[in-house]
Write a structure and sequence with these properties.
Length: 494
C-alpha cells in the first residue's frame, strides 16, 4: 500500500536558505493509493517508483543544494503516456515536476514539496536525421553526448556543447534554453530548435515537430517552451538544426596579465579569426590554482603562471588556411604584448587536455566546499569587475573562495563563491548585491542556467513588472491549475 500522511508544508522542505522559503499551494492534492493504482495501470509497475530508496536520487539536485520530498516518481516511455498522466494530474490537481538529466543549477528540475516527479529518461530514441537539411528529431530523454556522437557518425554535430553533456537531456536543454561553448558560433536554441512536441497541463498533445527552416504561419508557439523550464508544458520531442562537423579544429590556450588585455585579445580574435572562431573562454588564476590543487598529477600547460587564461577554438573546413590564420593571429598578439605565453594543441588528445582545464572547474569547486553559483550575462568590460567586487565583500571571510570564468565571447560570466557550508551569512553577502550590480549594467541574472527556484524572487532585476505579469497571464492560460513545475520561474504574488 502507498502510505500517505499530511506533511503540513509551510516552507520548502529542502531549502538551504531562508530567502528561498515558499509556501505549499493548498489547492494541490496529495497522492493517494488510488492515484498510484491509476499510474501503474498506465505505466506498469516498472514505471512507478514509490520506495524511499528508489526515489531518493530524484529528490535532490546534483549539488544536493535543493532537496524535495516527493513520494512518487513516474517514468513514461512515450508521449501518449505523458498525456494520460498530465490529464489525470490536472483533473486531480496533483502538482508535477518534469525532470530530465537533473543537471540544473537553480533547483528547476527537483520538487520543492511533494510534487510528482515526471522523469523522462526512458524517452530516449533518436527518431530521424536528415543529412541534407541537418535536422535531427529526438525524444526528450536523449542524452546530449549520445546525440552528438550519433551526429558525428553522419558528419554533423549538436548545436550546443555543455560540461554536463554526458548526463543532460535534449528536452531539458530545450526547456532551459541551455547555452554552452558553441553558442558563440551557432547561436542559442531559440534559433536552432525548429520544432517541439509538447504536452500541455490538460494532456493536450501539441505536435509541432516542424523540420523546416522557414515557417511563417502565425505565432511561433515553440518559443514558449524554449526556456520556460517546464512551467508551460512538458517537452516530449525536439527537432534541432545541426551544423556540419568541422574538418579542421584548432585549440590554443593563452596566458595574459590582465582582464583588460583579455578583452583586447577577444576584439582581435573576432576581427582576425572571424568566421572560424568557435569558442572564446576565459578563467582566472584562482581557477587554475584550484584545478592543480585538486588534481595533483596535472600541470599547468603554460610555462608561466598567469593572472588570466584565454582558451580559443577555431573550427573550419580548410586545415592549411585555418592554421595559417590562427598562427598569424597568435604571433601578432605576442608581438603586441597582449599575451605573455601560450600553447597550441598539436593533436586531438592535446585539444582535449586543454579543454579539460576549462571544463573541470565546476567539478573541482565541489571538492573545495559548498559552491554558490551565479550564471550572469554582462557587458564584457564589466564581467570581471563583479568578481573583484565580490572578493572585496568577502575580504573579512578568508575561508570563502571566489573565482570567475565563463564564455567571454558572448558575455557570460560564471561567478562562483565557495564556502565551508551553505549559510544565510554567506548568501546575504552575495545577494541581492550580485543582482543589483547586474541590473545596474543592464545584464541578465540568468545567462543560460534558467530561473528555477533559486532566482524567482530576483526575477525583477531582469524583467519589469509588466513583463512578469504578462508571463503570469500566459501561464494562467496554458496551465490554469498551475500544476506544471510550481514555485519555479515566476515569483509568488505578495
Amino acid at each position: 500500500m502507498f502510505a500517505v500522511r499530511s506533511l503540513g508544508f509551510t516552507k520548502a522542505i529542502g531549502k538551504r536558505f531562508a530567502s528561498q522559503a515558499v509556501t505549499r499551494n493548498p489547492n494541490f492534492a496529495q497522492v493517494n493509493d488510488a492515484d498510484v493504482a491509476f499510474f501503474t495501470s498506465v505505466l506498469g509497475e516498472k514505471g512507478v517508483l514509490t520506495e524511499a530508496h528508489d526515489i531518493e536520487p530524484y529528490n535532490a539536485d546534483w549539488l544536493n543544494k535543493f532537496v524535495g520530498q516527493t513520494k512518487l516518481v513516474l517514468k513514461p516511455t512515450n508521449t501518449k503516456e505523458v498525456s494520460e498522466i498530465l490529464k489525470y494530474c490536472n483533473e486531480r490537481k496533483l502538482a508535477v515536476c518534469p525532470q530530465g538529466g537533473n543537471t540544473g543549477l537553480v533547483g528547476g528540475s527537483v520538487p520543492v514539496f511533494d510534487e510528482i516527479v515526471l522523469n523522462l529518461s526512458k524517452m530516449n530514441k533518436i527518431k530521424d536525421f536528415n543529412a541534407t537539411s541537418g535536422v535531427v528529431i529526438a525524444e526528450t530523454g536523449v542524452i546530449l553526448q549520445n546525440l552528438d556522437e550519433f551526429l558525428k557518425e553522419h558528419g554533423h554535430c549538436a548545436p550546443l556543447d555543455l560540461g554536463a553533456k554526458g548526463s543532460c537531456h535534449v528536452g531539458g536543454n530545450t526547456s532551459t534554453n541551455a547555452g554552452g561553448i558553441r553558442l558563440l558560433r551557432y547561436g542559442s536554441l531559440h534559433g536552432n530548435v525548429l520544432g517541439v512536441e509538447a504536452v500541455m497541463a490538460d494532456g493536450t498533445i501539441l505536435d509541432g515537430l516542424c523540420a523546416l527552416r522557414k515557417d511563417n504561419t502565425g505565432f511561433d508557439l515553440k518559443q514558449l517552451f524554449i526556456g520556460s523550464e517546464g512551467t508551460l508544458g512538458v517537452v516530449t520531442a525536439v527537432a534541432w538544426l545541426c551544423p556540419p562537423l568541422s574538418s579542421s579544429v584548432n585549440v590554443a590556450l593563452l596566458g595574459t596579465s590582465s582582464y583588460e588585455l583579455a578583452q583586447k585579445i577577444l576584439l582581435k580574435a573576432k576581427s582576425e579569426l572571424g568566421e572560424i572562431l568557435s569558442a572564446f573562454e576565459f578563467f582566472d588564476s584562482h581557477c587554475m590554482d584550484l584545478l592543480l590543487e585538486d588534481h595533483k598529477t596535472k600541470k599547468n600547460p603554460l610555462e608561466d603562471d598567469c593572472k588570466f587564461y584565454v582558451l580559443i577554438e577555431t573550427s573550419g573546413s580548410n586545415e592549411t588556411h585555418d592554421k595559417e590564420k590562427l598562427n598569424n593571429f597568435l604571433e601578432s598578439t605576442l608581438d603586441q604584448g597582449l599575451v605573455s605565453t601560450g600553447t597550441v594543441a598539436e593533436s586531438e588528445t592535446q585539444q582535449k587536455d586543454i579543454w579539460w582545464f576549462r571544463e573541470t572547474i565546476t567539478e573541482s569547486l565541489r571538492s573545495k566546499g559548498k559552491p554558490y553559483k551565479y550564471d550572469i550575462s554582462l557587458p564584457v568590460p564589466a564581467m570581471y569587475d563583479l568578481v573583484e567586487k565580490m572578493k572585496q565583500r568577502f575580504s573579512e571571510m578568508p575561508e570563502v573562495f571566489v573565482c570567475g570564468y565563463g564564455h567571454m565571447g558572448d558575455g557570460n560570466l560564471h561567478l562562483n563563491i565557495v564556502a565551508p557550508e551553505f549559510s544565510d551569512k554567506v548568501l546575504n553577502t552575495i545577494e541581492p548585491y550580485v543582482y543589483e550590480f547586474t541590473a545596474e549594467h543592464r545584464g541578465s541574472i540568468s545567462a543560460e542556467h534558467g530561473i528555477g527556484l533559486m532566482k524567482t524572487k530576483s526575477l525583477h532585476f531582469s524583467k519589469s513588472e509588466p513583463m512578469i505579469q504578462l508571463m503570469r497571464d500566459i501561464k494562467k492560460v496554458m496551465d490554469p491549475n498551475g500544476i506544471l513545475n510550481p514555485y519555479k520561474v515566476l515569483p509568488e504574488k505578495e
